[in-house]
Amino acid sequence: MRYYPVNLDIVGRTCLVVGGGTVATRKVDRLLECGARVVVVAPQCTPALEQQASAGRLLLHRRGYRSSDLKGMFLVIGATDDETLNQRIHRDAEARHMLCNIADRPRVCNFILPAVFSRGDLVLAISTAGKSPALAKKLRRELAGSFGPEYGPLLDLMGCIRSKLLAREHAPEEHKPLFETLLERNLLALVAKRDVQAIDALLAEVLGPGFSWAKLMEVA
Prior knowledge:
Mean pLDDT: 94
Shape: elongated
Strand order of the largest sheet: 3-2-1-4-5
Structural class: alpha/beta
Largest sheet: 5 strands, parallel
């Protein structure tokens, strides 16, 4: 395995996208979804990027790329079809020890972007090490059929339970069998059916009093 899997926290971090086409638009959308502050540099861009800039969701410079654009950036994504420019972005980023991704050019990336499928805070990433994005997308579609929308609220519920247990100063190792029991007792199926009465009964049996769907999900 060549690549080191990692999830980056980019909330509030400034990220640069060079390019203004459909690929750049997709990259920008994902960065914004993850809370990044996005700067786009491109002589021309899609109407979607224009709208986002007008709404103040991103900063758009309608011009060509400059090496100085990398100053203060956390990462850069090159999304152009200009190979010379892509190579320049890569060299500039490497000189600054920056995270750099060039769309569809894994050889000039120091990180690659996997195909991502999500249900709320559940995120599943599929990587083929850049060898076959088409296969990664196919697997993502298959995962979408295996993981329903109930996984989102299930994860919210489990997170709230974990926070409440940790507040009681229990050792985290003590919690593992509790969560395993909840999952083995089909908590997922109960969440899918929104059977609140059965959920509350299961929570009380496994965790004791003070745990209920309504109270826990108020915090989620």
